[in-house]
Amino acid sequence: MGRKDRCQDVAVSGRCRHARTHVLSFAAHHYILYGEQASKGVYLCTGLLTFFLIDYLTFEEVHLYTYDLFAERVGFKLGWGCIAFYPFFYAIPLWSTVALPDAHTPVFLLVIYALVFFSGWSISRGANLQKYFSKKTRQRFSLV
């Protein structure tokens, strides 16, 4: 394992570990405050962010292989962003709503929110996979 690999592993594992802790602790705090009257939206947001973090860690090679520290100048992003910014950035939706009572959001809106999340996730995942396979095989690759 080279130095580049170790730096990326530290950055990604730090980002995901801290973000997961923030997301789950906000959800636990919301449950402590409201118990059975807790917001379904907070739980949906927690579930979606947890899915994203697990997916990110599971397919870590796809993300890390597409980074080029020098050509794309992502060294600062991996260093400062993954350690200081992203762990808190992921939790912003929960941070801003965790102390609020249930807004009684209709289920159909929660489904729409989940669809919007998965649409964005599939677009970003598709772009990462396309770049990964293109770099890995040195050929043009299209998911379409």
Key features of this structure:
single chain; 144 residues; 6 helices; disordered N terminus
Explain what this protein looks like in three dimensions:
The chain has 144 residues and is mainly alpha-helical. 75% of the residues lie in helices and 0% in strands. It has helices at 3-34, 40-58, 60-66, 75-89, 92-95, 107-137. The chain starts with a helix and ends in a 7-residue tail after the last helix. Mean pLDDT is 80; it is low at 1-8.
Low-confidence region ranges:
1-8
Strand content: under 5%
Our Rg estimate from Cα atoms comes to: 18 Å
Please work out how many helical segments DSSP would assign: 6
Largest sheet: none
The helix content, as a percent range, equals over 70%
List SSEs in N-to-C order: HHHHHH
Tell me how many strands there are: 0
Output the structural class.
Answer: mainly alpha
Give the integer mean of the pLDDT values: 80
- The coarse silhouette is elongated
N-end to C-end Cα span? 34 Å
How would the blueprint of this fold be written?
Layout (H helix, E strand, L loop, with lengths): L2 H32 L5 H19 L1 H7 L8 H15 L2 H4 L11 H31 L7
Helix pairs in contact: 1-2, 1-4, 2-6, 3-6
Short description:
This protein has six helices and no strands. The protein has helices at 3-34, 40-58, 60-66, 75-89, 92-95, 107-137. It is elongated.
